Amino acid sequence: MAKTIAIVNQKGGVGKTTTCVNLAAALKNLGLRVLVCDFDPQANSTSGFGVDKTSSPNIYDVLLNGADPAKAVAATVYGDVLPSSKALAGASIEMIGLERREYQLRESLDQLKARYDYILIDCPPSLELLTLNALCAADTVLVPVQCEYYALEGLSDLLSTIRIVKRSLNPEIALEGVVLTMYDGRTNLSMQVAEEVKRHFPGQVYATVIPRNVRLSEAPSHGKPVCAYDALSRGAEAYDQLARELVEHNRYAVTRV
Ligand code: ADP
Ligand code: MG
């Protein structure tokens, strides 16, 4: 049965989608069965796998039009993706009237869990109903943190949201880990931020740090994860390392929040 990991940070531009696409492809290269559930209406993970953003059925059709989740999955050579759609932006409002509205995504993904080892959910930059659905569907939360000023800003809100979800909606949820992204070893700032994040999350920050690497920002425009775009780049190497570290951690129990 798949382990479901939500990739969450309510800040935009911190590397959620980049981590989702490239970690998924790296896990697949390790021989694991992986599904990316694109849960951001911007659908950048969808196009990052070379899948058309306007394809249908998509996650919106699954949640609100009763589409079969298995039929919505697009299989690519880099991994499987449950595509998003800009219609998802309206889904939070449309779901308000539903019973068990926080569990809609969970109920859909439950139907796919037997087919995969990992399901990664790429979340939108907010802590509202879509992200709440992702937190209810997830076993764990992976938090990308950009090595920039204000990196820690908002993380206490994120942690308190996770605690509330744990108390009231999903008692099993845990923190998978924190990954430092866009690290630039030439700047003191990156090093200082990395130290600060490690102090804040002792034992929960991956040893693998994702460097700032232009290949990572170019790959999406080719509709490929970085390992297929430039396998020898530092970005590809870093996500391969992160995948190995994550798999290794999962041989042991993960930290509880
Ligand atoms: P989010 O999903 O959190 O909004 P993205 O993954 O879309 O963030 O990243 C924001 C922007 O930064 C994108 O243009 C992406 O290509 C770029 N980017 C992300 N990670 C890196 C990195 N390690 N090196 C260089 N560019 C990156
Ligand atoms: Mg994104």
UniProtKB/TrEMBL annotation:
Signal peptide: none annotated. It catalyses: ATP + H2O = ADP + phosphate + H(+). CDD domains: ParAB_family. Residues 2-174 form the AAA domain. It comes from the Bacteria. Dimerizes in the presence of ATP but not ADP; ATP-binding is required for double-stranded (ds)DNA-binding. Interacts with DnaA. Belongs to the ParA family. This is Sporulation initiation inhibitor protein Soj.
